[in-house]
Each structure stands twice: as C-alpha cells, then as structure tokens.
C-alpha cells in the first residue's frame, strides 16, 4: 500500500503526495475551484532534478484517475463483464436525451424486463440502486446491467423515449416457384 501524505494548503486546496519506488515524488494539488495540478518533483537537496507540473480541469483529473485505476468500482465491474450474457455499460445523459429531467422509472414496467440501472453517478458521488422516482439530469451517468441487446434497447429508450418492439430485419418477399416445378 502506498503511503499518501495529505496537507491542507490554506486558500488553495489540498496537496496529496507520495514517494514512488524509485525515490521520486508525485503530488496532486486539488484546488478549491475544482482544478487539479499533477506534479512530479524530487527532494530540495537535488538541485539538478527538474520539476514537472501539469494543470488539469475537473473532467481531465477524473479521466486521469480512471486511466490510472482510481476507482475500484471499475475494476469490480470489469470482472463481472466477463460473465456470458451480462453486459454492464455506462450511459451519459445529455441535454437532448428524452430521459433528461425525468424520473428513472422501471424498464420492466415499460416492457423491457431484465435490465437494471445499478447506479446513477452524479458529480463525485454514486447513487446505488436508485428508486423508480429518482430524477435523472443532464451530466448524470447511468450504470446499466442486463443482456447486451436489452441494454442497447434501454439506451435507445433513454435517447428517444420509445421502445422499438418491431423486429429490425426486413421481410423477405415470397417468390413463386420457378416454371416447371
């Protein structure tokens, strides 16, 4: 386990640092504004060593955390995705989506049993197992589980507000038997 040091920076935010296996130091300054600085540095004794600093906005910081394995939820869900017949996918709600501003509702009541919203992620918090009356807003991310084709239908419903129950394959015309048969 990595030992992380946390320091409050008055008027700025919080600095988290840790020492890497090769003796380098990595830090993240989380500003009160939501921005973050990723910094890499060495001890003050080493004047020749360089310091690297990278400013990230809130979305970029979350993306970097995900890429570095910042959430254990993602790792756990990845293991579940290996189960045959089960799909777990994320649906990001945009302003133009039909579900935006609406209660989540029940996919079973809408004629699509076997698909479940496992959680709604809003900002930095997750709302696990949301009730049917949980209102969904633009910027939310729905974590949806079910058979792959049902998850796809649920995503279509979230976008358009309609469930397509008609098959998508075109009818094959019936042809007469060739002459002489």
Q: What's a concise summary of this model?
A:
The chain is of the alpha+beta class and 181 residues long. It folds into 2 domains: 5-67, no CATH class; 78-160, Alpha-Beta Plaits (2-Layer Sandwich), CATH 3.30.70.1450. Helix content is 18%, strand content 30%.
Description:
The strands form two sheets. This protein has a five-stranded antiparallel beta sheet. The N and C termini lie far apart (79 Å). The longest helix has 13 residues, at 148-160. It is built from three helices and nine strands. It has two domains: 5-67, no CATH class; 78-160, Alpha-Beta Plaits (2-Layer Sandwich), CATH 3.30.70.1450. By secondary structure, it is an alpha+beta fold.
DSSP E strands, number: 9
Helix content: 10-25%
Global mean pLDDT? 76
Structural class: alpha+beta
Low-confidence stretches at least 5 residues in length (pLDDT < 50)? 70-75, 166-178
Task: Provide the domain count.
Answer: 2
Spell out the blueprint of helices and strands.
Elements: E1 5-9, E2 13-19, E3 25-31, E4 36-41, E5 52-56, H1 58-67, H2 72-80, E6 87-92, E7 115-122, E8 125-128, E9 141-146, H3 148-160
